[in-house]
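Review form for a predicted model. The reviewer records the input and the model, then writes brief findings.
Reviewer: anonymous (R2)
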Amino acid sequence: MLLASGIIALLILLTALFVAAEFAAVGARRSRLRRLAEDGNALAARILPVLEHPQALDRYIAASQVGITLSSLILGAYGQASIAPRVAPLIERVGGLDPETALSTSTVVVLLALTTAAMIAGELIPKSLALQDPTRTALWTVVPMQWAERLFTWSIDFLNGSGNLILRLLRVKTTGHRHVHSPEEIELLIAESRDGGLLEPQEQVRLHQALRLGLRTAQELMVPRSRLAAVEVATPFSEVLRLVATSPYSRLPVYRASVDDIVGVVHTKDVVTNYIANRHHASLATLLRPIERVHGSIPADHLLAYMRDRRIHQALVVGEHGQIEGMITLEDVVAELLGGVSDEFKSATARAILLPDGSVRLPGAMRVEQAAQVLGADWRAPGETVGSYIAKVLGGVPATGEHVSVNGVDMVIEAVEEGVVLSALAVPPSAGGS
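Model under review:
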C-alpha cells in the first residue's frame, strides 16, 4: 500500500509539473528573462529561445499537455488496478454488498477520490503558484520540460500535425502560441497592477491614454482651420516681428492670399536671427520652412511615429479632396498622452493672439486688465479672468459659437467646457467701427 501511495503521489506531482510549466511559459516576462540570461543565468538562457519563437513555444506547450494527459490517464488506470481491489473488501463488509458490486463501487470511489486529489494538488495549486510568479516557475520547470519534450517528440509531431491539418481544412490560420493580448486584456492587466500596488494612479492613467492613442485621429486632435494663427506671406517684416512677439507659438503657418493656400511655416528663431543680421531688410518668403501634409484619418499613434521619423514638429491636416482642415503639432499628440505641453520658446502664460483677419483670440484664463489693454476696451474688473468676466456681464455662460457683445466689444465664444469659457474671439472697437 505504501508503494502504491508513493506512485500515486509521483503521478500527481508530474501533473503539477506539467500544469505549472504550461502556465509559466505563457505568463513569463521575456524582458526579465532576457536580463537574467545576459547576467549569466543558464536556466534563463535555456527557456528564452522557447518563449521568443512561436513554433518552439507551441511544441513546449504541446509537451506539457501530452504530459498532463498521460499522467492523468496513468493515475486513473493505476488507481483502479491497485487501490480499488484493496478497498472492495472494506466496502463489502460495511455495505453488505456482494463481491462484484463492492469491486465496482470501490472503483468509482477510488476514481472520484483520485480525480479530486489530482484537480486540487495537480492542477489548481500549481496553476495559482505559476501565475503568481511565472518567471521563477518557468526557470524551475525548464529542464524537466525539455526532457519531456524530447521524450514526447513523436506524440507532439503527430498531434500537432493532426490539429493543424484539421484547422487547414476548416480554413483557420494557425499562428502558434504567442504572448499577445487584446487592448481590453492589457487594460485589465493595468488595472490589476494598480489594484495590486505596482502602479501609481497617475501611471495607470498615462498607460491607459497610451493604449487608447490609436483610437484618436489627427482630425480629432488638430487645431481647426478657423482657429489657425497664421501670417500672410506678403506681410511686411516689421509686422511679422510684431506678430511673433505677441504670438505664444514658436512656429506660425504662412499662407498666400488665403489660409487655403499654406505655403510653409516660419520659425520664431529664424525671424529673430534674420532681424539681428539684416534688420528690416528681409522678406518672409526667404524664411519659410516646408510643412508636411497628413490625412485627417491617420491614427494618432501612427502620426507620432511619422513625425518622429521625419523629425518634424507640425503638419497640415488635409481632407479627402486635399483641402486644408487644420494643423497638428507634436505637442498636440504628446498632450494626449501627458496633458498640456507648452511651447519650448514661449511661456505657458495665457496671452492674446492677433489673427490675420484683425480679430484677437483671448484665452479664458487671461486677466481682464491685460485683455482690456490689448483691445483698447473699457473693461474694469480687477482680479477677474476673461472667462468669468464674460459670464458675469452676460449673466450666464454663453454657448460655443454664440455671438455676443461684452461692454462694446463684439465677440464670438470659441470654446466652452463645463460651464467655463476657455477662449473667445474679439473684434477691437477700432476694427469694429471701420
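Findings: The chain has four domains: 2-169, 183-211, 217-348, 349-434.
Further findings: The CA atoms of residues 81 and 107 lie 9 Å apart.
Recommendation: see findings above.
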